[in-house]
Amino acid sequence: MNSRLFSIIRKEFIQIFRDKRTLVLILIIPIVQLFLLGYSATNDVRNVPLAIYDQSHSSEARALLDSFRAADYFKIAFSVGSEAELQSLIDGGQARAGLIIPPDYAARLAEGKAKVAFVLDGSDPTVASTALSAAQLIGQYHATQILSEKMARSGQSIKLQPPVEVRTTVWYNPDLISSYFMIPGVIGMILFAITAILTASAVVRERERGTIEQLIVTPIRPWELVLGKILPYTFLALFDTIEVLLVGHWWFGVPIRGSMVLIVLVSALFLLSGLGVGLLASTIANTQQEAMLSVWMTLLPSIFLSGFFFPLDAMPTVLRIISYAMPLRYYLSIIRVLLLKGVGLEMIANDVIALTIFGIVIMGAAALRFKKRLD
After folding, report:
1. Nearest to 180 by CA among 167, 193, 171
2. Nearest to 172 by CA among 44, 334, 343
C-alpha cells in the first residue's frame, strides 16, 4: 500500500472516530436493528386473546377449554355472557378470536353430533390464518381423544388409525423459529445500508466542506482517492457483519453451520454493490440530504423485493422479474443457505456469480463517474 493511499485511509478513520454520531450509527444501530427485528419481525403467532361464550357450563365444555389452554396458541382472556359482548370485544381489538359453546353441547356430544362456533378477526390475515389452523388442529385432537375414551369405556381396544399417515420432518429449522430466517436478512440489510449511506455521505461531506478540491490538487490519483474513501467503510461493514452474526448466534441461537471464511468472503463480495451504490449516489448529489434520499430510493425497493420480509414466490410475476435486478436478493439467498444448511460453494455458485457481476458493474460504473467528476 503506497503512502498516499494509506494517508487517505488514515484520514477517513480519524474523521469517523471524531464524528460520534457516525460511530454510533456504525457500531450501535446494527445491534438495535437486530434486536428490534429479531423480536418484532416474526410470524410465530402465540397467545392470541380468546373470548369464551360458554352456554353449556358442563364438564365436557371445560374439557374442550382445557385443550385450548394446553396449546400456547391461545390465551383465554375473556369470558362473556352474550354474543353481542363477544362481538364487541372482537370489534374493539381486545380479543382476536371467540369460541361459542352452545347450551346443548354435552347432550350433542353424547350423540356424536356436537358443534361449537369459532369466530376469528380476519383484519390481520397472518394472525387469523395461524389461529384458524391451530383451532382446527386442537378440535381434531380433542375429538380423537373423546372417541378414544369412549371406545376404552366400552371395552373396545381398537386403535384409531387414519387410512393415510403423513409423517413430516422439518430440516434445518425443526422448530420453525422466525428469527432463524429474519436475522440473516438483517445482516444483508445492514451491510447494504451502512456501506451505501456512509459512503455517499462521506464523499458528499468532503464536497460540502470544500475539502474535495484540496484533495484533487494533491498528487493523489483518482483511484487512490476512491479506494481510500471506501476501504474504511468496508472494514467497518465487515466488523458489523461479524458483530451481528455473533450476537444472533449467542442471543437468538441462530446456527452458523457454514464456513465462516466463506461467509465473510461472500459478504465482502456483496459490499461491492453497496459501496458502488453509495459512490454513485455521491456523484449525483451535492448535499448529504440529497445523497441520503438517493440511497433510500434504491434501499427500499431492495428490501421489499429481495425476500427479506415477503416470499418471492408469492409476488406477482412482474415484481419477481424486477427482483432479479436487486443484489440483496442473491446475498440473502446465499447467507441463509450458508448459516442454516451449511452447504459449500458449489451449491451457491449461481448466486455468487450473479453477485459478482452486479458488484463489478455497479462499482465500475460508480468509479468511472466519480473519476470523471473529479477530472
Report:
1. 171
2. 343
For 194-218, the pLDDT digits (tens) are 888 888 877 777 777 766 666 666 6
> Is residue 300 within 8 Å of 331, Cβ to Cβ?
no
CA distance 59 to 46: 26
Could you give the CA distance from residue 130 to residue 343 in angstroms, rounded to a whole number?
Answer: 31
Distance CA(129)–CA(8), nearest Å, equals: 56
Furthest-apart CA pair in the chain: how many Å? 99
- Using the predicted structure, report yes or no on whether residue 51 has a pLDDT greater than 90: yes
> Does one domain contain both 67 and 145?
yes
DSSP 348: G
Question: Which cell goes with 65?
Answer: 377449554
Same domain, residue pair 136 and 59: yes
Q: Flag whether 346 is in a domain.
A: yes
**Grid cell for residue 328:** 440483496
**CATH code, 86:** 3.40.1710.10
Assess whether 37 and 87 both reside in one domain: no
Amino acid identity, position 101: I
Whose CA is closest to 352, among 343, 187, 245, 153?
Answer: 343
CA separation for the pair 236, 311 (Å, rounded): 30
Are 187 and 245 a contacting pair, CB within 8 Å?
yes
Domain of 282 in residue numbering reads as 3-41+177-374
Mean pLDDT score, 232-241: 83
Torsion over CA of 61, 65, 66 and 69, rounded to 10 degrees? 180
